């Protein structure tokens, strides 16, 4: 049985397995955090190019987050020491920024989470470095479609499994693999909270979606098989078959009549090309 808990935004919230239901204060907080997150990703579109290191991009994310009055939620999170995750080519997620330079043809995910006034804005986009082969660009396009198809299913009265079912059907129609080991999540005052939003599921299963629920949807889609492995750094997840992987993420809230995307790009830069 699923338990829900009403949250106004001022009380202490813990990870107790309940699904939090937020009011207007929560929506206002998430709108601000989400907008800052989207603006950071907007700015990165002008900087991601051959030769730039992922560490330099991390510096930009940290500075923009602090300038926006927020702190990067990943900094110090479970021992992680960077301001974002940068996942290149066959890295599925949680790539650690460093001195590696991007090169022509790379596809790159950058995932940011400013924590602003106690609310988490969690979002990621793909970036194309220079000339990217058609096969990789198609993977990126379809992965964005998967995200938006999942968001369309996030309606009050629907079931959580409806989201993953729609994403899985779309990805598999293109013969892509849907990553199972990582999923979307509830968020708000907490970075990662119940429920787990899986991206491969059966329609009609799982808890009912109710107004006031906040969650991320963040499908990771592989050009090859779905299977991933973790590198010895304890963070970096890569495809087992070395195939390319893509991901997009939005933070959303369920409303009375649909949903609100907190992390939509104010510049219309939700997916490449960003020119
Ligand atoms: N932003 C990631 C997510 O979408 C989580 C990153 S946690 C980190 O949930 F520690 F790896 F940064
Ligand atoms: Co997330
Ligand atoms: Co994220």
Automatic annotation (TrEMBL):
<feature type="binding site">
    <location>
        <position position="185"/>
    </location>
    <ligand>
        <name>a divalent metal cation 2</name>
    </ligand>
</feature>
<feature type="binding site">
    <location>
        <position position="122"/>
    </location>
    <ligand>
        <name>a divalent metal cation 1</name>
    </ligand>
</feature>
<dbReference type="InterPro" id="IPR002467">
    <property type="entry name" value="Pept_M24A_MAP1"/>
</dbReference>
<keyword id="KW-0645">Protease</keyword>
<comment type="subunit">
    <text>Monomer.</text>
</comment>
<feature type="domain" description="Peptidase M24">
    <location>
        <begin position="28"/>
        <end position="256"/>
    </location>
</feature>
<dbReference type="GO" id="GO:0046872">
    <property type="term" value="F:metal ion binding"/>
</dbReference>
<dbReference type="GO" id="GO:0070006">
    <property type="term" value="F:metalloaminopeptidase activity"/>
</dbReference>
<comment type="similarity">
    <text>Belongs to the peptidase M24A family. Methionine aminopeptidase type 1 subfamily.</text>
</comment>
<protein>
    <recommendedName>
        <fullName>Methionine aminopeptidase</fullName>
        <ecNumber>3.4.11.18</ecNumber>
    </recommendedName>
</protein>
<keyword id="KW-0378">Hydrolase</keyword>
<dbReference type="InterPro" id="IPR001714">
    <property type="entry name" value="Pept_M24_MAP"/>
</dbReference>
<dbReference type="GO" id="GO:0004239">
    <property type="term" value="F:initiator methionyl aminopeptidase activity"/>
</dbReference>
<comment type="function">
    <text>Removes the N-terminal methionine from nascent proteins. The N-terminal methionine is often cleaved when the second residue in the primary sequence is small and uncharged (Met-Ala-, Cys, Gly, Pro, Ser, Thr, or Val). Requires deformylation of the N(alpha)-formylated initiator methionine before it can be hydrolyzed.</text>
</comment>
<feature type="binding site">
    <location>
        <position position="218"/>
    </location>
    <ligand>
        <name>a divalent metal cation 2</name>
    </ligand>
</feature>
<feature type="binding site">
    <location>
        <position position="94"/>
    </location>
    <ligand>
        <name>substrate</name>
    </ligand>
</feature>
<dbReference type="Pfam" id="PF00557">
    <property type="entry name" value="Peptidase_M24"/>
</dbReference>
<feature type="binding site">
    <location>
        <position position="111"/>
    </location>
    <ligand>
        <name>a divalent metal cation 1</name>
    </ligand>
</feature>
<dbReference type="InterPro" id="IPR000994">
    <property type="entry name" value="Pept_M24"/>
</dbReference>
<feature type="binding site">
    <location>
        <position position="192"/>
    </location>
    <ligand>
        <name>substrate</name>
    </ligand>
</feature>
<keyword id="KW-0031">Aminopeptidase</keyword>
<feature type="binding site">
    <location>
        <position position="122"/>
    </location>
    <ligand>
        <name>a divalent metal cation 2</name>
    </ligand>
</feature>
<dbReference type="InterPro" id="IPR036005">
    <property type="entry name" value="Creatinase/aminopeptidase-like"/>
</dbReference>
<feature type="binding site">
    <location>
        <position position="249"/>
    </location>
    <ligand>
        <name>a divalent metal cation 1</name>
    </ligand>
</feature>
<keyword id="KW-0479">Metal-binding</keyword>
<dbReference type="GO" id="GO:0006508">
    <property type="term" value="P:proteolysis"/>
</dbReference>
<feature type="binding site">
    <location>
        <position position="249"/>
    </location>
    <ligand>
        <name>a divalent metal cation 2</name>
    </ligand>
</feature>
